[in-house]
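Q: I'm writing up a methods section and want to include an example of the input and output format. Could you take the sequence below and give the corresponding predicted structure tokens, formatted cleanly so I can copy it straight into the document?
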Amino acid sequence: MEIRQISSISDVDAQAWNNLAGTDYPFLRHEFLFALEQSGSVSTKTGWTPAHLITLKAEELIGFMPLYLKNHSWGEYVFDHQWASAYHQNGLDYYPKYLNAIPFTPCQGPRLVIKPTYNSIHMYQIFLRAIEQLSISQDISSWHCLFPADEEVEILKSQHINIREGVQFQWFNREYQNFDDFLSGLTASKRKMIKRERKRIAEQGVNLVQLNGAEVTTTQWETFFNFYTMTYLKKGSEPYLTLEFFLDIAQTMGEQLLLIFALNDDRPVAVALSFIGSDTLYGRYWGCYEEYHSLHFETCYYQGIDYCIKNQLKRFDSGAQGEHKIARGFEPVTTYSAHWFKDTGFADAISRFLAREKVAIQQYKVNAATYLPFK
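A: Here is the clean output for your methods example:
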């Protein structure tokens, strides 16, 4: 068995990668990660240097870990700027660091993929040893695994890796027959609120259209990209992804993309992009030109709930943050990240910090649940 580090996912056969990754979790597909690199969205220039780890046996791919060398902490959705500051104050370099994650994607999923016939714990031990050795030889401060699957969290705990908790808000399909069936389980006040918000959309002359990524035209993708870019520019920042990235994935994995256009007199006024997994809809990007009452709720949440119900998806993961989701039926769930530090002193200090933070996070989750709208 050989562990090898590669500087581009193009160094791995796409079919071999996808045979292990599958399509249940769209962000692990070779096509998605390749588009990030090919489009320049992920590169040394943007602070995301691909450094993937693969393991081979007799030249057969039997496992991989998407890995990036980072010289900043942007685009991660797990915030460690204070840790970087503490390193700096003590005369140590926090960057570069290793990041085991899907770039710009705060969605829980596999972070180490191995052939089913191999033992998960044993393979994690092999990869973690390789990371430790590479960190020493390359002068890397740390390794961070963001939004791993639940079963991976348990493995990482068993390897004495620091675990950090967070909270997101997700919607769960309890075998609803239609949107009204979902509403029937809510309190009268919240049911009335959502009905009124949806009615306002029609009153403003806005219609919603759902399109599968494979049927979206280049012009429509350009329109979406303008909306996406505007979302960042309004905040005074630059977008992470390029138009080429979206055009690439539309060609290679369009069946797992869902675009929702909001139209007024056939003119796009807002758009949202989601990714379709085997049992989950992942809401990712949205943008609007003009402000319409309740348009964000309709485009980003109610349309996604409608889609999940009609297509029998179990869950709607609408991304990070957004306490306003709670009143609309999105429940607080715990998310995780894992953190290994080469410096044992800092590892111990951060372990103590995470223990204190965990208490606050769990209390926040309990408090958030008290605002859920269900009867």
